[in-house]
Design brief:
The structure holds 2 protein chains of 2 kinds. Chain A is mostly beta strands. Chain A contains 2 helices and 12 strands, in the order E-E-E-E-E-E-E-E-E-H-H-E-E-E. Classes of the chains: A mainly beta, B mainly beta. Chain A: Belongs to the intradiol ring-cleavage dioxygenase family.
Chain lengths: 240, 205
């Protein structure tokens, strides 16, 4: 990379930091261009989490916060693979999720949306990817959610995903959306991603094979980590 | 009475015919719910305690603290700060759940909107590199996270290749100021998102 090069925004698939339709970005986006990392300085690994920190049920929001019954809403199974840019599985990686309940309400203290809380639901989950890079989340489909970005603004139904790769530059927090959601067409967070193909990758697919008959609908959501350490030209004979 | 189910599509992946990196989205205002223990629902934290109390793991115990400021100089109260660092010997830990795992997570929904990371001072990870913390920042208002680094004011940072890739007049935005207190060393650094003394951010995507 030419060290004199300067980037006004992350480029690639990511949204620019300044995205005026998303009002909060205006005072928080850097004005200065990003400085390229000198070659080699990004190669220092990433946190590796053990299964010992996870409890049974951590991956299932329909059971992990029960007080006196089951949470309300449409049950969903979300399954997917965590992959690197070469399509290789990322194994043993931590995924953390959080979301609103079926009514579109977060349990967060700052959420004052006039919709009911669910006493049996916090909407948080954690899981590790397996040997094939697969994870499975069991949850409740979140409701749409109003916010103050502009008049009559509504966030599409979404689940927040936080993931780690094998390099800290792969660290990613993103959101998963549901197919066919009419609110996507109006959402400055989703539309902030310039490339329509990039946006589409954040929309899960309904997958009948993942449904649990009589119990839950199924969605597939695969995630690909970028990070600047990988090049399409590196030796791919080993996938450790 | 059951009927034959319809045939399944060949590939139901959201990446079918569209393989490529997944874009970042904002952590939003409610990330504590999923990422910060003890706020809502999470029982156990990851990265919440960087050094196991009482652990004999070598290294000077230090605190890094400061604020995150927007373009008007207003403190941002919903920022997420993550660090990834080497141990005192300059080695990046193999396991985040070791006595020292190298990974930390802090936020600014605190009194005075200050973040605080209680860690140990890293060593130099390679010849010529000054000790540093690698920092990942997310917040409401950032669709895409930002990457920066923190250096220490009492170290010789003059030969560090990352700092030397930064224009002279901006390097100070990455150097935390040491203060020796009765409770040990405290390093102070504010992250300024834009404008005067804007923090240097790196292109690491």
């Amino acid at each position: 990379m030419n060290h004199e090069e300067r980037h006004p925004s992350p480029g690639g698939v990511h949204a620019p930091h300044l995205s005026p339709a998303y009002a909060s970005s205006v005072k928080r986006a850097p004005h200065e261009r990003l400085i390229p990392l000198p070659h080699g300085l990004h190669d220092f690994g990433a946190p590796v989490f053990g299964a010992g920190r996870l409890q049974p049920g951590d991956h299932d929001t329909t059971v992990n916060a029960r007080v006196n019954g089951e949470p309300l809403g449409e049950r969903v199974v979300v399954r997917g693979r965590l992959l690197d840019r070469q399509g290789r599985p990322v194994r043993g990686a931590l995924i953390e999720t959080w979301q609103a309940n079926a009514a579109g309400r977060y349990v967060h203290a700052r959420d004052d949306h006039d919709a009911p809380l669910d006493p049996n639901f916090t909407g948080t989950a954690r899981m590790l990817t397996d040997e094939r890079g697969e994870y499975e989340l069991i949850s409740i489909r979140p409701g749409a959610y109003p916010w103050r970005n502009h008049h009559n603004a509504w966030r599409p139904a979404h689940i927040h995903f936080s993931v780690f790769g094998t390099n800290f530059t792969q660290r990613l927090v993103s959101q998963m959306y549901f197919p066919g959601d009419p609110l996507l067409a109006y959402d400055p967070v989703y539309l902030g991603i310039p490339d329509p193909k990039g946006r589409d990758r954040l929309v899960s697919r309904f997958d009948l094979s993942l449904t649990r008959p009589g119990w839950a609908l199924g969605y597939r959501f695969d995630i690909v980590l970028g990070g600047d350490h990988a090049t399409p030209f590196e030796d791919e004979d080993h996938d450790d | 009475m059951t009927t034959e189910p319809p045939p399944l599509p060949e590939d139901t992946s959201n990446l079918a015919g569209n393989f490529g990196p997944s874009p970042s989205q904002t952590v939003g205002p409610y990330f504590h719910q999923g990422l910060v223990p003890g706020v809502q629902g999470l029982q156990a934290g990851l990265g919440h305690v960087m050094v196991t109390p009482g652990s004999p793991v070598p290294g000077e115990r230090v605190t890094l603290t400061g604020r995150v400021l927007d373009g008007d100089g207003v403190t941002i109260e919903d920022a997420l700060i993550e660090v990834w660092q080497a141990d005192a010997n300059g080695a990046y830990p193999a396991r985040a759940d070791a006595d020292f795992g190298g990974y930390g997570r802090a936020h600014t929904r605190t009194p005075l909107h200050r973040y605080a990371l209680h860690t140990l001072k890293p060593g130099s990870a390679a010849p010529g590199l000054a000790p540093r913390l690698n920092v990942w920042l997310g917040m409401r208002g950032l669709l895409t996270h930002l990457v920066t680094a923190v250096y220490f004011s009492d170290e010789d940072n003059s030969g560090d290749p990352l700092l030397n890739a930064v224009p002279d007049h901006r390097r100070h935005t990455l150097i935390a100021r040491r203060e020796d207190t009765p409770d040990g060393a405290v390093y102070h650094l504010d992250f300024r998102m834009q404008g005067q003394d804007e923090t240097v951010f790196f292109d690491a995507y």
